[in-house]
Each structure stands twice: as C-alpha cells, then as structure tokens.
UniProtKB/TrEMBL annotation:
Cytochrome c-type biogenesis protein H Ig-like domain span: 1-95
Organism of this sequence: mine drainage metagenome
Protein name: Cytochrome c-type biogenesis protein CcmI
InterPro entries named among the record's database cross-references: Ig_CycH
Length: 100
C-alpha cells in the first residue's frame, strides 16, 4: 500500500558517467501507473543532458518522504542501458527496497 504523500521520481542517468541524473520527472505516487517521457527540459543542472548520451539507465523510485536523494526504505527499480533514441515504451518494475 502506498502512502498518499509518497513521490515518484523517474530519471535517466548515463550508465558510465556520474550518478547525477541527466533528466528527472517528479510525480505524485497517486499517478501510478504512469507513462513518462523524459526530455532535455527535465535536466537538473547545467552540464550534460539527455540528448548528450547514447544510452541511459532508466530508474524509478518511490520516496516516502519526497526526498530527491534515496533514503532507506524507499522503493526503486531500473532498466537498461537503453538507447536514448528508442521510440518504444519501456517498463520499469519497482522491486527493490533502498538500504536492504
């Protein structure tokens, strides 16, 4: 059962680069199941963006406290590497507990 205050973060990161996401979307957990399209406009900071990578890891994390950084007890999942120019949808299964 999801806490109504939980937040879903969907992100793309470079599989061989720093852990900072290239793009991130923040949604209420109540939006699940959700379809999310990540774009360069969702970049977190100056520097590399989504279109600068050839492949990415796509991750999704449910944060019970709404924090951008993973906290023990958050739920997460990831898939990839995925080609950035892929046009077909992918599914991310949230099946791991952070800190366990």
């Amino acid at each position: 059962k999801l806490d109504p205050d939980s937040v879903l973060f969907v992100y793309a990161r470079n599989p061989s680069g720093p852990p900072m996401p290239l793009a991130v979307a923040r949604l209420p957990a109540s939006a699940l199941p959700a379809t999310v399209t990540l774009t360069d406009a969702m970049s977190m900071a100056q520097g590399p963006n989504l279109s600068s990578a050839q492949q990415v890891i796509i991750g999704a994390r449910l944060s019970a406290h709404g924090q951008a950084l993973p906290q023990p007890g958050d739920l997460e999942g990831s898939v990839g590497p995925i080609a950035v120019d892929r046009t077909q949808p992918i599914s991310v299964v949230i099946d791991k507990v952070v800190g366990q």
